[in-house]
Amino acid sequence: MARTKHTAKRGLSRPHRKRFQFTGSPSARRKAAGLWILHPQSDTGASSEDAHQGTQRQTEKRSRRSRPGVVALREIRRLQKLTKLLIPFAPFARLIREITGFYSREVTRWTPDALLALQEAAECHLQAMFEDAYLCSIHAKRVTLSKSY
């Protein structure tokens, strides 16, 4: 049996609610409400370019806001398609050299191929660890991954 979405049935026992009718765009509603401030052209002989700038400001559309989480999901999908490394190479190489200097004074130089291999292995390990941690947070009925104490 297929899952279907059950919509709410409108029974006769509930009173009919009044619905608001909005006509036009939000900017048209603002203009009608008097919230749109127009700067009149001055009588000092303003040029047609100044008038064009004023109308351009009035007709300029605002960027649309997306719902919370939509941009994050879009970024996740984009990053999952990429095959390049996400950690910048220079800071990672500095970290490797610092760790190596802490543990051994004999190894002071790294080939670029060795650093790339280490970086790829480190990113793969971090990704697997974050995936497992996110699955644990979902198991604990949380949406957000948070550190445990």
UniProtKB/TrEMBL annotation:
<dbReference type="GO" id="GO:0003677">
    <property type="term" value="F:DNA binding"/>
</dbReference>
<dbReference type="InterPro" id="IPR000164">
    <property type="entry name" value="Histone_H3/CENP-A"/>
</dbReference>
<dbReference type="Pfam" id="PF00125">
    <property type="entry name" value="Histone"/>
</dbReference>
<comment type="similarity">
    <text>Belongs to the histone H3 family.</text>
</comment>
<feature type="compositionally biased region" description="Polar residues">
    <location>
        <begin position="41"/>
        <end position="57"/>
    </location>
</feature>
<feature type="region of interest" description="Disordered">
    <location>
        <begin position="1"/>
        <end position="29"/>
    </location>
</feature>
<protein>
    <recommendedName>
        <fullName>Core Histone H2A/H2B/H3 domain-containing protein</fullName>
    </recommendedName>
</protein>
<dbReference type="GO" id="GO:0000786">
    <property type="term" value="C:nucleosome"/>
</dbReference>
<dbReference type="GO" id="GO:0046982">
    <property type="term" value="F:protein heterodimerization activity"/>
</dbReference>
<dbReference type="InterPro" id="IPR007125">
    <property type="entry name" value="H2A/H2B/H3"/>
</dbReference>
<feature type="domain" description="Core Histone H2A/H2B/H3">
    <location>
        <begin position="68"/>
        <end position="147"/>
    </location>
</feature>
<feature type="region of interest" description="Disordered">
    <location>
        <begin position="41"/>
        <end position="69"/>
    </location>
</feature>
<dbReference type="GO" id="GO:0030527">
    <property type="term" value="F:structural constituent of chromatin"/>
</dbReference>
<feature type="compositionally biased region" description="Basic residues">
    <location>
        <begin position="1"/>
        <end position="20"/>
    </location>
</feature>
<dbReference type="InterPro" id="IPR009072">
    <property type="entry name" value="Histone-fold"/>
</dbReference>
